[in-house]
Design brief:
The protein is mostly helical. It is built from six helices and no strands.
């Protein structure tokens, strides 16, 4: 599971700016991935993102980040972590784990936003 998560994060890193990748990827690999490994026992990414992880799991991953990172001394650091998670969930998770009907809906929204 850890290798799969790290591969997904690597794919995600290619879809964001270099500045974001430098900031977000280490946070995700060093804190989000270990939190998932310690707290979830599913064997595949689709099951993890579509069935296992909940809003509370996201919140608890933020708690994990704060408790396990000695460099977190300000609220802004937690906000960076939450921004990284938000960006991570939007980009690869929408691409890899949406059903086709949702993909059509997303494409229609993007098309409408361009008008």
């Amino acid at each position: 599971m850890q290798a799969n998560l790290n591969d997904l994060i690597d794919k995600y890193a290619h879809k964001i700016s270099e500045k974001q990748a430098i900031q977000y990827v280490p946070m995700l690999k060093n804190y989000f991935v270990p939190y998932i490994i310690e707290n979830y026992s599913c064997n595949n990414l689709k099951s993890l993102f579509c069935e296992e992880i909940t809003r509370n799991g996201i919140i608890q991953s933020g708690v994990y980040y704060v408790m396990n990172n000695e460099n977190v001394s300000a609220k802004s650091r937690l906000i960076y972590f939450l921004n990284a998670l938000d960006s991570f969930f939007i980009i690869p998770c929408l691409k890899y784990f949406l059903t086709p009907i949702y993909e059509v809906f997303i494409h229609l929204l993007v098309y409408k936003m361009k008008l």
